[in-house]
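re: that chain from earlier
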Amino acid sequence: MLVGPEIPPNTGNIGRLCAATRTPLDLIEPLGFSLEDRYLRRAGLDYWPYLDLQTHRSWSSFEASGSREKVYLSARAETSYLEAPLEGVAPCDLVFGCETKGLPKEIVRQAGDRIYQIPIFHPEVRSLNLSNAVAIVLYDALRRRGFTQSS
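^ sequence. v structure.
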């Protein structure tokens, strides 16, 4: 799930990834673009019909729709995602923030000790591209849950 994504090609790439892995994608508004954006569509190619996509007006409206256990990802977290209980959550319950600000502070507080980061080894590199981060963690979550080629 993406909270307030801002860059259409990132969301398009993530949409394509989710379609390929049969993982639902939730987008939490505000979005920094229209879902009709040509760059979003171009990055997702012609796979949008295969994507299970839902949008929510806000984090609170998403939470009101029935909350499950989640794993939160943030470049500012201290614990590696390698220690996250990814086998215990559905891949669609991975929560990522927007490209420029990350997760909002209220969501970080709510996450408690369920917030993780992808290790970055160079001290001058602050974060990874959002679509790359989602791909890393999503495929690890699928691997830990025992997916196969035909899953």
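The first helix runs from residue 8 to 21.
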